[in-house]
Every structure is written in C-alpha cells, then in structure tokens.
Amino acid sequence: MARRNNKSKSHSTGFILGIIFLCAALIVGAVALIMFLNGEGQNPPPLAPSTAPSGAPSKPTEPTKPTTPTTPSSGPGVDQVTDEEVEALVAKADFIAAGYDYQKAIALLKSAPYYNEKPILAEKVAAYTQADSELVVFKNNGNIRHVFFHSLVADTDRAFDGDFDSFNYNLYMTTISEFNAILEQMYARGYVLISPYDMVGEVTDETGTHFAYKEIRLPEGKIPFLMSQDDLNYYAYMVSTDDGHNKVPEFVNERNDGFAHKIVIGEDGYPTCEYMQKDGTIVTGDYDLVPLLERFIQAHPDFSYHGARAMLGVTGYEGVFGYRTNPNYRTAMGDEAFEKEVADAKAVAQCLKDHGWLVVSHSYGHPAYGEISAERVERDSTKWEETVQPIVGETDILIFPYGSDIHNWRPIPADNEKFVTLYEDGYRYFFNVDSNVWNQVGENHFRGGRLNLDGYVLYHKPWLVEEFFDVETVFDKARPTPVPTL
Fold first, then answer.
1. Whether pTM exceeds 0.70
2. Sign of CA dihedral 117, 121, 123, 125
C-alpha cells in the first residue's frame, strides 16, 4: 500500500510539473510573439564598419530601430506619387517643350525620382528628343524684326475724346483690340517671340571674347521676333488730371484717359493691371500689354521661345509701373506711404522677372540722348542707377528715349563719350527706332532698330507691317480718322 501510495504521489507530482512547464512555454511563446510584432525581436541591421585603428578595440554599435521612410527632397518616391502628380509633371514639361526648349523638358522629367517606374515619362522623353532633332537653325539673325508699343488704350471713348492728349494717343498708342488682333495674326503667320539674349550676346572662341549672333533653333518656317513696351510708368497725365511734377505725386482719379494705372500681382501670382472705370470703380484684369501677352502665351506656349517675354522700358521721374517712387515725393507723401510705394514696386518687379519679363532702362527723365551732351547723358544715367535700379534690379539693356541714338548708322567709335559712359554703366544692348530692318553687332555690344506699331504706322504706313498682319482687319474702327501726321 505504501509503495502504491508513493507511486500515486509521484504520478501526481509529475502531472503538476508538466502543467507548469506547459504554461511557462506558452507564456514565453506569447512574449516572443509580442516582441516580434513590435519589431524588438528582429535581427539587428549589420553593424557599420569600425573606423577604429587596426588593433584597437571597437566601440559596440547599438542596433538601429526601424524608422518611418522619408520622402526624397526632390519629390515623392514611386510608392507615394499619385497619378495626378505625374500628370501635373507631364503638363509642366509639355508647356516647356511647346516653347521649343526640349532639353529643359527632358531634364525636368528625368529629375523625377520615379522616372524609371513611370513609362509615360520615358515615352515623353523619346517624343521630345525626336522633336528636338527636327529643329533647324534660323539662318538670318541680322533680319530679325523688333516691334514695340506704348501703353494700350483700354477705353477709346475716354482716350480719343478730342482733348490735347488724344492727339498724341492717336499717334503713338495702340488699342487693346488692335493689340489682340496683331498677336493672333502674327501667331498664325508663324512668328515666335524671343529674348535679345537668344539672338545675340557675348561669346568666346578662338578669336577671343566678343559679341556675335547665337543659334536660334525653331521648326522650319517659324520666324523669331523681339517685342518691347516703352514707358511702363502710367504717367499722371494719362491717369489723372495733372502731370506729376513739382514734387507732388498724382494718382488715378475719375478723370483718367482710359488707361490702366498700375501693374499689380494677381491672385494667380502673375502680373496684371489695375484699372479705374468711368464710375471710379477700380478693377483688376487684362488692361495692358503685360497681362494680355501673358494670357496669350499661356494659351499658345509655342508663341514664346524658351519662355521669352517682352522688354519693358521704364523711366524714373515719376516712378515705375504706376507706383510713385520718385524720391522727391517722399516729403509730400510721408515716409510710410512712400516706402510702401517702393516696396510694392519692388514686389511687382520681382514678379515680372520671375515670369520671364525683362525690365530695362528707358532713361530716367526721358531726354533725347542723341541731342544732349555726354555730361547730361551721364547725369541722367546716374539718376536711373540711383533711383530706379534699386527697385527693378540691374539691366544691360537701354531703350533710347524717342528712339534718339547716340550715333549714326555706322559702327560706334570706341572713343564716343556717350557710349563710353553708358558702357561703363553696364549697358550692352541699345535699341533705337527705325522702320527699316536694322541690327548691328559691335565688338562688345549690340544695337538694333525697332518698329512702332501705333496709330501713325497703321494709318499712314501700312506697308511697313504687311509682313506681320493685315492692317485693314486689325485697325480699330473706334480710332478717329484721319490719324494725325508727325
């Protein structure tokens, strides 16, 4: 009995120990499972190679805990990118490629971190490469035309109301209707807007450093041209009742002559215009060359070579872009109001440049450089440098006031005092007014003629513009006729 009892006790004890061991195993397994799910039981990553000298004990490296993947600084990776983002990238590249800058469009697509995983991008690159190979070099930069405008007439009733100013408006201005028609017809005839920097500039070759024509690569049949606008200042006589002289700034009022009065930055980030209607209400929109041309290029990107925009010539004696930034106005306006004008003008200048526009000098006081002394040219240039350049930035382009050049049609002599002054002030591109095709490359500069597309030419010399458009269909019937003669 006793032996039987001991045996029973042993069996009971073994059974209990088995239960205990089973429970322990289950607990250990559960803990291991929890550690695995939390990432704590995984093998650590390989240790980085020791940088300790040979023979020296290495410092133990702690295992690195898993971290959340980061998005590459250049954009989302293939796992994060959406179809909408890929479509937006392709649309941006298509817009650039439409302006014949295929290499830039290719570089943009190839810079995407997901380029190799999105077949559409490689397909686009192949198409751009083929299109780029079909471009041809324009053969005659010396025949490239340059057209220019002044502020555009937005309201023909107010501009052509019969007062003294309407005489000059009819001569020298173009209406919005005419400008839009000109763009449409030039586009239909294959014209493409370029920058002067696309046309000519400083090169270095076996003969040294000098100015020379550059290669412009366009589809066969396309014709490059330059465009500029003079006096993007919105002078007081156009938008107010006085002339802005005598150190008193004049701002827009209800008696304005039907022109925009200020360049502003639109809600979309692009430059646009403020305009006062007849009832005194101020609205924002396409009331002058800048927003009109910008909108046209957005709709027709193939009208702009490599994103080119027009040159915008500004003087300084009242201010720039409609802002009264002449330092003489500070006293009348007060420091705070004057500084705001300057700050707003600077912001507009940056916005224009960010979108490809070239803000250039049209002199400070608008004197005829060809008819004044070298000393006066120097004083005027210095004033522009001191009062306008801090707002709009540096430029190497000068549009002569009245088209009055500092020399005749022959190459400028190296000792020409006016040229030496302007060259030392940084100018390398000079533009006058000439109804003929006229371009001249100097050793260290360029001079070119410009054709005025205004009331005088449209009415009295339509043959000068027949290569660009049909005058009869462009001419605004609201323009009084006969247009005055010069």
1. yes
2. negative
